[in-house]
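User:
Care to share a sequence and structure tokens?

Assistant:
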Amino acid sequence: MLLKMRQVIVVFSLSLLFLTSCATQAPSRFEQAQQESSQRGSSAVVKESESGGSFNKFFPPSGGGYERVYTQEKKGFAEAKLKKDGKEVAVLAISDILNNPSAAKKFEKSSQKIKGYPAVSQGKTGTAVLVGYRFQVKVLSRDSSFSEGDRQTWLEKFDLNGLSKVQ
């Protein structure tokens, strides 16, 4: 009887294992994001995009109690965290919009300018400028102490004119 019971449990367990391994799983959040961006018509990084490392020279330097720490560089994009007293207060980024030309649309009706370049607010925590109709330079607050005025000040510290000369 005990042997028969073990056989039933083993058969049941193997059946359950087989059924669960064959079940389709929902896509992970990364797979889902990839599917959604593909459906919107986004494509991979275009060949003509600048390397992320080439953007570093246009970022503002550390100073005035702030530390700039580069966190990501990839083709068409570079990002740095801005820290004050060891705490992240903002994220600074430059992206080549050749990869996403529709990103320029939000600047078309902009009446705000920073150093002569069209600027827009993005939600309550972001401010961006469009340089040379090709590069989006963005500052995102990561702490409530870092205001819209702070974001604009830090955008002015980027070498926007130098970035505008990149072909």
Remarks:
- Helices lie at 2-22, 29-39, 148-157, 160-164.
- The first helix runs from residue 2 to 22.
- The beta strands are 66-74, 77-84, 87-96, 112-114, 117-122, 126-131, 135-141.
- Residues 52-164 form a domain with the Protein Transport Mog1p; Chain A fold (CATH 3.40.1000).
